[in-house]
Amino acid sequence: MADSLLALKTIRAGYGEAVVLDNVSFELADKGSLAILGRNGVGKSTLLLTIMGYTKVARGHIFWRGQDITGTPPYKRARGGIGWVAQEREIFPSLTVEENLTVAARPGHWTLDRIYDLLPRLKERRGNKGNHLSGGEQQMLAVARAMMTNPDLLLLDEPFEGLAPIIVEELAGAIRRMLLEQGTAFILVEQHTEIALSLTRHAIVLERGTIAHSAPSTELEKDTATLDRLIGLRVAEPEALRQR
Q1: Please, are residues 206 and 44 in contact by the beta-carbon 8 Å criterion?
Q2: Residues near 168 by Cβ (< 8 Å), separated by ≥ 6?
Q3: Contact 138/91 with Cβ under 8 angstroms?
Q4: Whole-structure pTM value
Q5: How many Å apart are CA 244 and CA 235, to the nearest integer?
Q6: In angstroms, rounded to a whole number, what is the distance separating the alpha carbons of residues 208 and 239?
């Protein structure tokens, strides 16, 4: 645990008296990447919310760079280097693309110019307000805004949900380049199983709020029996993303 960026130890968490996660433990190395897979309603998004500090932890501990942050409020976790892209995107609709990016900026590798180089579509729309963007462009903006905080760990909650294949390819390519260029650690919740496994080094599968399976992503990608048993219908990735 001393060498881990993030570690969860026997976490039991949920909302009020409702328990969603039980006995969840895993570690993420610095610059590591983890896919969280599972059917709908098994606690994937709740796991990210727990890491950010938005749920009630009834048992267990969360460690960030070796320090116990179980009781630390969300804003301090964000200041400490944990970035989060919510499933609802939550961009500022009345601000322009560039204002959305600069309002969240913190010193580090990811600057406005680097973001525009990574996602040229945002540069083209830099003067457009958030509510004038397409759904895919809003998702790109949400990811880019989180990157502008220069986090050590980025939490992504179903970033490809409902997006056109061409946008999925563009956004997945940006995330892959982000890994190669800066080595930012990230945890990805995603229904597109093949995409999630192609972007990450390790994966866990949740079932009824517990970890039912853990394996390297390349190993799980080949284990179709386990994927079919624990996830069921697997969403195939666009053809272009298979060329990696």
Answers
A1: yes
A2: 160, 192, 195, 237, 238, 241
A3: yes
A4: 0.89
A5: 18
A6: 32
The answer to whether the CB of 163 falls within 8 A of the CB of 171 is: yes
Is residue 243 pLDDT above 50, yes or no?
Answer: no
Close Cβ partners of 223 (under 8 Å, ≥ 6 residues apart)? 215
Model confidence over 48-72: pLDDT tens digits?
999 999 999 999 999 999 999 999 9
Nearest to 8 by CA among 52, 58, 63, 59: 63
List Cβ<8 Å contacts ≥24 apart for 213-217. 214/26, 217/35
| Domains observed in the chain | 29-42+72-242 (3.40.50.300)
pLDDT of residue 132: 93
pLDDT, mean of residues 212-226:
95
H or E stretch at 182: helix 165-182
Percent pLDDT > 70 in the chain is 94
Asked if 6 and 51 touch (Cβ cutoff 8 Å), the reply is yes
Return the amino acid letter for 188.
L
Who's near 132: CB < 8 A, 6+ residues apart? Answer: none
Kind and range of the H or E run holding 116: helix 112-118
